[in-house]
Amino acid sequence: MGPKPKKFASKNKPVSTCGFKAAGRVAARLAGMVSAVCLTALLVTGCASKQPPVQALDSEAYLMCHHFQRETFEASDALAESYEFEDGKLLAATSPHFIPAMTFTCKILKTVAAQDTPCQTVIVIAPGHSGEGAPIMISDLGWRTPWGDLVVDERATQAIYREYPLGAKVQIDRERIEQDHSASALMPYIKYYLPDVQIVTVLLNRSARLEDLAALSKVIAEIAAQKEVFVLASIDFSHYQPYEQTLERDAVTERLITAGDTQALKDLDGKNLDSPEAMIVLMNYAARREGSEAKILEKTILREAEPNGRIGYSYYVWGFGEAKSERHDTAKDLV
User: Fold this and answer.
1) Residue-by-residue DSSP string for 188-206
2) Domain membership of residue 109 as a residue range
3) How confident is the model over 211-234, as a mean pLDDT?
4) Cα distance between residue 48 and residue 195, in whole Å
C-alpha cells in the first residue's frame, strides 16, 4: 500500500470548495452511489514580448492538496490494473479529475510506473474551472501530498513561462491552481505511483487561442526531447447531460479527436468536454512525437436515474503510444 502518509500543517489560508459545490446534489449523490454500487465500473491576447525573469523559487513553499480523499484513493488503488503495451511506451494520456472516477488515474500511473525507462517529470495540463486568470497559468511551486513533497521541475516550468510566442499569456498563479481540483486532485496519485518524479502544473482557460496551445505543445515537446516526460491532461468529458445526449456528444468528440480537427474541437462547449484546450495541447504534443498513436484505452459511461430521465457521465482514457490493449467500453446504471 506504500509508505504511511506524513502529516503536514498547512500555513496556507483555507481554500474555497466552490468547485465541488457547483456540482451540487447530483455530484454528491453520484459520489455516494459510485462508492456503494459502481466502483467496479470505474476500474476503470497578442503580446509578443518576453516575460520578466522568474523569481527564485521558494523551496520551502508548496501548494496543498485540499481535494484529496483517502477512502477513494484506497479503493481505487486496490481495484486498478495497469494497461498493457506491446512496443514503445505511454507518452501521454487523459485522466478524469472527478474524484469518484480516479481509478482511471491509478491505472494510467501504474502503467507509467511499470515502463522500462523511469519517468523524470510529469506535466499536468488541466482546465481552469472558474474561467478567471490568464489564458495559461503555471505554478512555480510543487505540491505537499500525503506521501511527501512533489517537487516542481524548475527548468521545465521556466521554459514554459519564458517561451517567447506565449508572451504575457502565461502567468504564475499559485492561488487559482491550488484552489481548482482539476490539477490538485491528481497530485497525491502522481506522488504515490511515481515518487521520484518532478512536476509541472499548467491550467488553461477557454480564452487560450489555438496558436497559444500550439506554442505550449512545442515547448513541452522540446522539454521531452531532453528528459523522460509524461504528459497528463486532466479532462472530464460529457457530464450532467441527458443520457442520449451524452452518447451523441461523445460520438462528436471522438470523431474530432480521431480526425485531429483542433479548430472544431476548440469550438465545442463544456457539454462535450470541460477542456478542449487541454485535449488540443495533448494532441499537438503527440503529433510532435514520432510514432505516437492516439487510442481510447478505456471508456465508461455512468447513468444516473433522475425524475425526468437518466443523466450520463462519460469518462475516457485517451492514450498516446502504441498500445496492444483492447478498448473497454462499459455502461453502468446508478439506481
Assistant:
1) HHHHHHSTT-EEEEEEE-T
2) 20-334
3) 95
4) 37
